[in-house]
């Protein structure tokens, strides 16, 4: 046992995992398993829930795992414990993404309390946003959230940078959608009835149209009205890390979740666009356009909008075991 890990029976580990599974994941595939061992929660990549076409190298699964680790940290802090998280603790076990444990008793900080409450309200919002601009203090909070977890967040200001990113994203989406296996994988994770995973058609936003500035995944065939369209000048951000190792991808997940919860705390809505990240050529185009030395890991569309609905999650009993 790690000497820094506290031995406690006062921690509700199942409640912590219930928070962890609220993390976002590609197609809501929930590619994780959790195991209680020696007073710590291990976070494992679930190889049975791979996305072989969308995520062949496991980048998305590691982002999801990092986001789940952030939620676990919040859950331990909320219960009165300082969380200790070790990423990729066993080189011989690359699918063991992290170990999260209580280190010592302490009260949750005000920021942890706010983010904990935001965790239960956070939902991806694929609907059009209102035209209200995101104020400068909120933008500063978002960039600071990414920095706090070792990532970076670049906000694209002005129509020129946004149009450049949109061009890369649309081109990537067109290439991806030409692949029958990619379309089949999207269809396989689109839910039209009760399910514990995947994206319900009702949460999939509006049916994509050619005039859309940013590409939307075709999770929904819900038609938009003649005057319903997406915002012409959205606030777009690119989240990234210094490099692109497995550890960097976990850090990206931590930073992503902190940014998402900070946005939720600020009453902002966010949707995620990964198409320009899924293709190596498009990702490099994006990096060059940003003039960044690091690696882009996710594109975010941010604004104000009507609160979205939750996507389903598998029960804790299905993903959590103890040893």
List the helices and strands and how they pair.
Elements: H1 13-20, E1 32-37, E2 40-45, H2 59-78, E3 81-87, E4 96-105, H3 110-119, H4 136-148, E5 152-156, H5 159-177, H6 180-188, E6 190-191, E7 199-200, E8 235-241, H7 246-265, E9 269-273, H8 275-278, H9 280-290, E10 295-303, H10 316-319, E11 320-322
Parallel strand pairs: 1-11, 6-7
Antiparallel strand pairs: 1-2, 2-4, 3-4, 5-8, 8-10, 9-10
Helix pairs in contact: 1-2, 2-3, 2-7, 3-7, 4-7, 5-9
Write structural notes for this entry.
The mean pLDDT is 91. The strands form three sheets. The chain has a five-stranded mixed β-sheet with strand order 3-4-2-1-11. A four-stranded antiparallel β-sheet has the order 5-8-10-9, with helices on both faces. A two-stranded parallel ribbon has the order 6-7. Helix 2 crosses helix 3 (110-119) and helix 5 (159-177) runs antiparallel to helix 9 (280-290). It folds into two domains: 13-122, NADH Oxidase; 136-303, NADH Oxidase (3-Layer(aba) Sandwich), CATH 3.40.109. It has 323 residues and is α+β, with helices and mostly antiparallel strands. It starts with 12 loop residues before the first helix and ends with a strand. It has helices at residues 13-20, 59-78, 110-119, 136-148, 159-177, 180-188, 246-265, 275-278, 280-290, 316-319; strands spanning 32-37, 40-45, 81-87, 96-105, 152-156, 190-191, 199-200, 235-241, 269-273, 295-303, 320-322.
